[in-house]
């Protein structure tokens, strides 16, 4: 690496900075620049049809300021502005914005594109940084300021001439603000304000772009606080920021800028835009949600938002993109799955205890920053099982089919699942897990409980009843007595009965998980039936059948522990 070619970004002399102790309590004004900055960064810029689809999405989501293009750039851009205006597609509470460089003919065409619009935002920009002044414009500071002032005057002239009856709002951006000397940015903005004369009813927007993000977010916050504190006519200025994401810290830059005085943020859905993109409006908005602040934007169908953005831009949203990425609500690893499962169980218990809808309870789930349901995503993908998953993953997935396995059975079943995920075999689907479970436990060729010598002498069972809502009382006592009698007929002593928390009934039936002590081994069986006794006898039958398949000696003999028996009661599966 040729490190010496690069140098540190200079700090901002702001020793009494206030933003580090500020807090955000309200959302900023948002501007979506998907149709302009996002569009100009596509290898195939959007045609009017795709632009319209994205525009409608932005309106549906609640964006009130939408930059719809650079009308002087191309016929497509110009025509799209005309289409929105002529077909009256712009809702009354939405203000569209168009961008132009500070060049005479471009300004005229840009203003002309807005003819007939009831309201619009005209956005003028020119680069102000020393590098751009020298390389692109060949101008000194004074000449560069004059370029902005000249453009600002022309905007007023053409608005006056061409936009009768339009409520025109004005915006100026010193492009490459991050790389511009702060005093020069201020000087140019003041000069533009002298032309535009903001007043109580004529607020203007001054927009500060990083353009290319080159410093850490705290430096950007210092730059914004400096402008916030030094701009004149501050009460008539909406201080806006336009962070890009070249260093991967666009979101942080926007958030710290809000602490520093920014009242408005420009960005793109899923971080579209030049190079590494503009700041992501989805991430910023949902970050506010996680702090209990309403962003004023509807994210309740984020999958649809992602789909439309992908289809319109032709760019895929990365699977790990915050909130919207395919995989961000998926836990593959056992530790995460275990905590998520316990948190969901706790929410269920809390809902049952309080009588409140689970969806309204405070969200306290480790590893999931928001409830996927709140943004229209499902729990389908929350837990996926690979070789990195322990017992909780398969148990969680079985839970979705109505099975709530006791902990020891979870462990036993995980040992059956694990080998099927190893050796690079990857993920095992929920459907396959269910099939495995049912084949292993629910569909063994169970011997009839009352067959002679059904179980080895001394056999005992502890049963766990799920989906049996009767709880305590005489009915429960009756069910247990019947269960005991049924098992005794098969030569099995009932040791204990546990009622599980689960309220789900697999297949609408009562499920019994039986921990059976058969000879010197512990074997689990599972049974489902319409009544407790039937489910219990099926469960014990399942355990006996599994034990026989695993090579447990015939009833009556008392073998020594066999090789492969790890002492936990788990026997090797039959081949
Ligand atoms: C950071 C941003 O995203 S800024 C927005 C950038 N977006 C775009 O550029 C997309 C749309 N742009 C276009 O379609 C074209 O660039 C046009 C139509 C605007 C201009 O096209 P051209 O006239 O061919 O100029 P070109 O694209 O080469 O731009 C460079 C010229 O613009 C001048 N220029 C660049 N920015 C500005 C500005 N803000 N104000 C005034 N002049 C400017 C440069 O000095 C250069 O002038 P020169 O040719 O005399 O040296
Ligand atoms: C035109 C300006 C606001 C811009 O897109 C940038 O500087 O990134
Ligand atoms: Mg930009």
Automatic annotation (TrEMBL):
Instruction: Please give the catalytic activity noted in the UniProt record.
Output: 3-methyl-2-oxobutanoate + acetyl-CoA + H2O = (2S)-2-isopropylmalate + CoA + H(+)
Q: In which pathway does it act?
A: Amino-acid biosynthesis; L-leucine biosynthesis; L-leucine from 3-methyl-2-oxobutanoate: step 1/4
What cellular component terms from Gene Ontology apply here?
Answer: cytoplasm
Its required cofactor(s), as named, are: Mg(2+)
Please give the residue ranges the record annotates as the region Disordered: 549-575
Q: Can you say where in the cell this protein is located?
A: Cytoplasm
Where is Mg(2+) bound in this sequence?
A: 37, 242, 244, 278
**What InterPro entries does the annotation carry?**
AIPM/Hcit_synth_CS, Aldolase_TIM, IPM_Synthase, LeuA-like_post-cat, LeuA_allosteric_dom_sf, LeuA_N_DRE-TIM, PYR_CT
What is the protein's quaternary organization? Homodimer.
What is this protein identified as? 2-isopropylmalate synthase
Record organism: Thermostaphylospora chromogena
